[in-house]
Amino acid sequence: MNASMLLSSLLFLLASGLFICVMVQLRHRARQVVQRLDGKAPGESRLSQWLQALGTSRVGQQSVKLDNETQTLLNCLGWRTARQRALFAALQVGVPVLALALSALVQGLFFPQVIHPWLVPAFALGIGYLLPKRLLAAAAHHRQKKLAMEISTFIPLLRILFESGMAVEQSLRVLSNEGKQLMPTLTQELRLVLARVDSGLELGDELHKVTRLLAVDEFTDTCVILQQLIHQGGGAMKSLLALKLLLDDKRLARLQEYISKMSAKMSVVMMLFLFPALLIVLAGPGFTALARAFAS
Considering only CA atoms, which of 174, 158, 170 is closest in space to residue 223? Predict the structure, then answer.
């Protein structure tokens, strides 16, 4: 009797343990599904989860929505998902608060006898609020410059594929798959456009939308020619060649301007560092001779 009761108790405990394990596994999978639907990675850290929660809060969303320039810069940078925008919103809210706390802590520990104790925290709060947007603007400008440089490689490859008999969509698919090393930024945008085309949208409209989001003149001109080629079916090869020559001329003029500015900067450096040394070498013996003559 005792043996049968012990065996039944063990079986009950084993069944309970299996049931608990199954429920924990199902709950873990449900949590992973919810995280994927929210745009979160399944194995992300607690810090990223806190940043995500701060960015999706009402204060974080309002800090981004109040400024239209921030939306434009995020689009130029390629941060168009909800998770990426929430991350920037968290930085926009968290950096000023962190700067305010650090400045107040440092001032309280090392400079407790300040006449105006609110001045340094106020400056820190303002700098912390402006810093994320300035970094965002610099990153977006750098990405726009990379896109403009990659267009010079993109147009000749397009002409080669068009001359081989491919259509616009086929050529863009080939370049998005095979040109990742030559044009990493541009192929990323092309993959997003083609993904929306696969979902049933029209290629010309999507190219027009992505040009408005990126705001790069070279890419806009190229997409205008591609839209002409989509609607008319031909007659765009000369336009692509003319655009390529125009972009080369612009790039040459930009390099000449950069070289002229660099030569001016180098002349200033030479005046500051080379001229004193040259003066010492050339005029030093004369000055020493004059000094000996006056001394004698």
Answer: 158
Cα dihedral: 280, 284, 287, 293 (round 10):
160
Burial of 232 (0-12, 13-18, 19+ CB in 10 A): exposed
How far apart are the C-alpha atoms of 210 and 204, rounded to whole Å?
10
pLDDT (0 to 100) of residue 141: 93
Which among 140, 144, 197, 139 is positioned nearest to 167, based on CA atoms?
197
Q: What is the pTM of this model?
A: 0.70
Determine the Cα–Cα distance for residues 157 and 23; give it in Å rounded to an integer.
55
CA distance 239 to 237: 5
Split the chain (296 residues) into runs of 10 and give each run's mean pLDDT: 53 58 59 55 56 60 70 86 80 85 84 78 87 91 91 89 86 89 90 90 89 89 87 74 85 86 82 80 81 80
Closest CA to 146 of 156, 157, 134, 138: 138
Give me the half-sphere count of Cα atoms (radius 13 Å) on the Cβ side of residue 107. 18
Going from the C-alpha of 264 to that of each of 171, 254, 256, 272, 273, the distances in angstroms are 44, 16, 12, 13, 15
- Per-residue pLDDT, 27: 60
CA 186 → CA 110, 182, 266, distances in Å? 50, 9, 35
In the structure encoding, which two tokens stand for residue 67, read together?
Answer: 């400024």
192: amino acid identity, one letter: L
